[in-house]
Amino acid sequence: MNVPLNRTKRNLTIAKAMAEAIAGEMRHDPAVLVLGEDIGKLGGVFGNTRGLYEEFGAARVKDTPISETAFIGAAVGMACVGMKPVVELMFVDFFGVCMDAIYNLAAKNCYFSGGQSPVPMVLMTSVGGGYGDAGQHSQCLYGTFAHLPGLKVVVPSNAYDAKGLMLSAIRDPNPVVYMFHKALQGMGWLGTVKGAINDVPEDEYLVPIGKAAIARAGRDVTLVGLGATVHHALDAAAELAKENVEAEVIDLRSLVPLDRETVLASVRKTGRLVVADDDYQSFGVSGEIIALASEAAFPQLKAAPRRVAFPDIPIPFSPALERPLLPDAAKIAAAARATLGTK
Amino acid sequence: MATAVAVPQDLWEEDMPGIISAWLFEDGDAVRQGDLIAELMVEKTAYELTAPEAGRLKILVQPEVPFQRGDVVAQIE
Question: What's the ipTM?
Fold first, then answer.
């Protein structure tokens, strides 16, 4: 058979890319271990720890009781004495019972100790809705975590970035909150966004924390997204291209540190800005990006910036109610047209 | 000659339908023997499907469409 084999291409889901990154670090750094609910034998309800228990055993891949207060507190302690725990908060919505460990202990210990006791932990947590899992399993809460000094926050939108950001997160001496979107994870029961599955090198590589990516270049309007909304923005850009509007799509990738330079360079070029965020609208990422553009690129703005975000209400269980409230490509395209004065 | 890619009869035990959660290659892509080509989902448990031989992948069952164990979901041409 004479088939040119594309040996270099190896598509992975975000779930697999995360597991591969963690396994790679565990192989050469004995300080790395994984903790969480159902992350061991089951391989994680979102597939992101599959294979780790079989390779590294129960001592380094620890299934915990259902007490985030206990095991996330334990992870902070482990990090303080030099281990590098990767701990999973299964749904970000559950942060309430463990937030003291996260924002009073993990986020502040390095500062309080004058740098003598850093907290090199990764808190990985699933975010996002769209599959009818109701108000306690569907939130993003990007703004909640990005608001607190002392935590780095990353949000991968595809498998390549998921692996590179995970490696960077584990090696970072600071606590990193790694927020992965369920709709991108590649798990059937959550739906799967095709663009999230991409080619992932088998070798290790780092995606730097604090660097945004230009997912699509354009000159007429800047569309800023993160996680799932990057894919909606790309779909919107494809629609706008049919109307001869060239949208530039920015994937933030990191919220803390925020890559202000990349956002500003784009806005200064296009003069128009739409931010898409499936977190609640008020006091969040969309407002922060628009404030940034207003403070630092005001003379170049040709129209008032717009945002497409989740309304400030609890997320409904009913798909008929939830779906219309989420950001999508049509809403982003409409917002872009509004900045251009077209309909 | 095309080789059928069937979901193994013993991949899971219960008599429940599965779905393709993600094809990891596009229709028409070249694949190597042993490449992970698809992820399957039964209830909330994930399974993997690998290429039985090298060749060009022809996808017969799209994601989210239910099938039974033993069904042919693709061909390698």
Answer: 0.73
